[in-house]
Design brief:
mainly alpha; two-stranded antiparallel ribbon; 4 helices
Length: 145
């Protein structure tokens, strides 16, 4: 099958199949009981045993098909550094945080005149922390001795 694709087509399929596999494995982790507990959220999967079993079967079948397609396409195993994901999510968080300073909240209605002085320093501190973490992961932040 690989000989019927140009490089761009093959690469698009590689990315799509890889992303789908990651999503399947994440769903499998939720089915296997993974939970998240943060300061302001808890994430749990609430499904009946029957629905979990059905989902596990679909995931197993999908992973088998992904494996078969990967062989047909001669897809290599690609090691991914989680640092890329951390950098990316921190960059998105930085932008989202800055978009929630008081002045920007006016798109949702009138903003209290004192909000900027109370909220913006905290939001800007969190945004700076996100950027700082991204720089540490990226290696552009100098190590402190």
């Amino acid at each position: 099958m690989k000989d019927k694709l140009n490089h761009s087509q093959w690469n698009s399929l590689r990315i799509t199949v890889s992303t789908f596999e990651k999503n399947l494995r994440r769903a499998q982790a939720w089915l296997d009981g993974m939970e998240e507990t943060g300061t302001f959220y808890e994430r749990k999967l609430h499904l009946s045993a029957k629905r979990k079993d059905q989902a596990r079967k679909v995931i197993a079948d999908a992973l088998q098909t992904v494996l078969q397609l990967g062989r047909w396409l001669d897809l290599p195993v690609k090691e991914e550094n989680a640092a890329s994901e951390i950098r990316g999510t921190m960059s998105v968080s930085w932008a989202n945080l800055l978009d929630n300073r008081a002045g920007k909240l006016s798109r949702y209605g009138k903003v209290h005149p004192d909000l900027s002085s109370e909220l913006d320093p905290i939001i800007e501190q969190l945004a700076e922390m996100a950027l700082h973490l991204s720089a540490i992961i990226d290696g552009t932040e100098q190590e402190k001795k």
